[in-house]
Design brief:
The chain has 147 residues and is mostly helical. Among the domains are: 52 residues, no CATH class; 37 residues. The chain has 11 helices and no strands. The relative contact order is 0.07.
């Protein structure tokens, strides 16, 4: 019975994490400034060479780490971002947890310890990158007529 349960758990884990086993991972994902460009396409190699000599990017990388670096440089190096995007999205926890903690501490200090964060939606608004278009919302609002 124990062997059967063990086999079921093993099979379940294999199914759940199959995509992670098949995930391609190159050294340049973690540190694009100090890796050898072996077995890469010509376009990727050219982009990595341009990045390697981008000193402003290197400063940001050293200051904020690879996750924040790639998120902030995704538009400047879109080909490289397309390669690394699945990895960053698959393991976003550290960045999101830190951002969430920062947002909560900021909300609590501003609101003087009112612990109704979830009810008010402040946390969701703080973590969202979408900005509300208040003017459009007010213009599209229709007043309810009397009955």
């Amino acid at each position: 019975m124990l062997l059967l349960a063990s086999k079921n758990v093993k099979d379940d884990m294999k199914i759940r994490f199959e995509d992670l086993e098949n995930l391609k991972f190159f050294d340049w994902y973690i540190n694009p400034f100090e890796t050898e460009n072996v077995n890469l396409s010509q376009e990727i190699t050219e982009n990595l060479l341009n990045l390697k000599y981008d000193f402003e990017a290197k400063v940001i990388f050293n200051k904020y780490g690879y996750q924040q670096f790639w998120v902030t440089h995704r538009k400047k190096y879109p080909l490289l971002w397309n390669e690394i995007e699945t990895l960053i999205i698959a393991f976003p926890s550290t960045y999101l947890v830190e951002r969430g903690f920062s947002a909560v501490s900021n909300i609590l200090t501003k609101k003087r310890n009112k612990l109704q964060i979830v009810n008010r939606g402040d946390l969701r608004l703080s973590l969202s990158t979408i900005e509300a278009d208040i003017k459009r919302l007010t213009n599209s609002h229709q007043a309810q007529g009397s009955h």
